[in-house]
Amino acid sequence: MAVASRLKDAAKGFLKARDRFWSGVWWTEWQIRRNEKKLANALEEFGEDSMPVRQLTERHRKLVKGARYWRPSDPVVMRVLEASERAGASRSDLRVLALNRDVVRVSDKVQVRRGWGYTLLAMSALGIFLAIWLMLMAQVVSSPARWEVRAAVAGGLTFLFWLIWPGWGLYTTRALDAAASAGETIERLGEQHNVESATVISMQEQRQHQR
Question: Per the confidence metrics, is the pTM higher than 0.85?
């Protein structure tokens, strides 16, 4: 049981790291660290009540909240995303939608981009991906090499495509699933004018929230 639990935790950790890589959230986290250094220098040089410190502090808050949902968004959109998570929407779904900029502010409402065009694009991307894999498999199988070599190459290519697909799907089919799962919650809260203010995340808490 202990071994199975460790393997399960390792698999979850790998999938989480894979999504973080393809989402590019590491770039936002690098910007946070860079901004922290600038903020520390500004505090030392100008004091905490200075305009540069205020500007850097506000940028820090936006970046930290952006990292929480994988990409910085409009402040109103960010408040709706936070309210949606408190209402029970999956943070994973909210991250995918924010990453794809599928949650948008329209006048005084927040809406989720949906429609047959997005479905067609996602299905086309899936079809292209599978077609490329099948074409390569056909070339490997029909090659004159020994069967052991063909099996090894086919296995290696399949593993490579398995690693690439999450990045491909993150911007296509997973966005569709996320919109279907969390879209109604987001739009319901996006129609309200009294969405609760987003919680300010301190520098000490940012690493925890990003997880």
Answer: no
